[in-house]
Amino acid sequence: MNTIACDSSALISLAETCNIDALSFLKEKTGASFIIPPSVKDEIISNPMRVRKYVFSAMRLRKVLNDGVLRVVSSPSLIADSRKILDEANSLFLSGNKPLHILQEGEAQCLALFSSARIDGLLVDEKTTRLLIEKPEKLRDVMQTEYRQTVEMNETVLTRLRKRFSGIAVIRSAELLAVGAKHGFFQNYKSDANDAFHASLFALRSAGCSISTSELDEYSGINI
Amino acid sequence: MASEIVGELRLLQKRFRERDVLGLKDLAEELASESFILQEPSLLDLSLVAYACSKFLEKPYIVTSEDWRDFDANLMRILDQSTMVFKQGRDKDGRALVHTAIMLVESLSSSLGRFVTSVIEKARIKAGAQMYAHGASLGQASALTGAEKRSLAEYIGVTKMLDKYSTLSVNERFSNAQRLFS
To answer: What interface predicted TM-score (ipTM) does this complex get?
Structure first.
């Protein structure tokens, strides 16, 4: 049974596109377990409950939590570990010798779960956290295009982060939905199941999942 | 830092006085990214004001309204006072004064605006998107600008920004995901 830490970005994408039930579906089909740190619970439920437009979306996610599909996990070392990750991530890139504070507490707590709990993967839709784990150089290259000047990387911090994030499997809501689709998540759409799956991927992109147009084209070659 | 803020205050006043809508929008973007790089909240406030003013100036029903003259005068007064206070080295007071410009904008937006979402909320989303493009995570961009995460994600989702961050191929990702759920 694999445990997957969930960032708020992916949970929000799934909730906003009416695909949040994919979590309970996959939990039932595969025995996977989905966990979140306390700060992510605040981001997906407590905070948006104060904004009328997003109350229903927050309630959908609260239901997922109350139904036991999502679990909040914390530990005595979580705050200290997330602080270390924040300090490292926020000193990795420099513009004109100024460190760029690219990461925030919610994302850092998710990453800190890997130190304190037995986690097999990270579900995250937003690009900075994913690129920090997979390819920080790519993030630097894109930033350099925006800044129109050199963005430096602190090599000592980079080495520390590579070691810290080694072996973390990152998936997005798109991949989660693709696996769900292969297990039959869209079967109620009958002859439209394949189209529903591909349409959902476009919906995820519109909800902010960091999936490119060319990746969506690649996904069109994966049928259920 | 104070001298940078004074420079930006002057530029904002100039472009507002000249009714330079495009210049105000450009300024809003620049101020958002500077605010992120320098970790200076006043620059964000000025970004929000610049964007809001650009939107107000586009709308004849706003600039011909009775409230507009008072807004114009009050905004310029606040910006003048902020400039003076920053030049005196009173950074904390200067930041507080700049922040009152936001409340002035909110007041005009709620009294004259025709939309449920205020112009400042839209300005926060634009600023957040700019920070996201400059490397901030979604959470950090949301935290720094006060833009709601969902709103920011939705806005970013319909831009071409997300085409820049591919790493693994879809087949590799899908295989990894299948292994995770096996």
So the answer is: 0.93
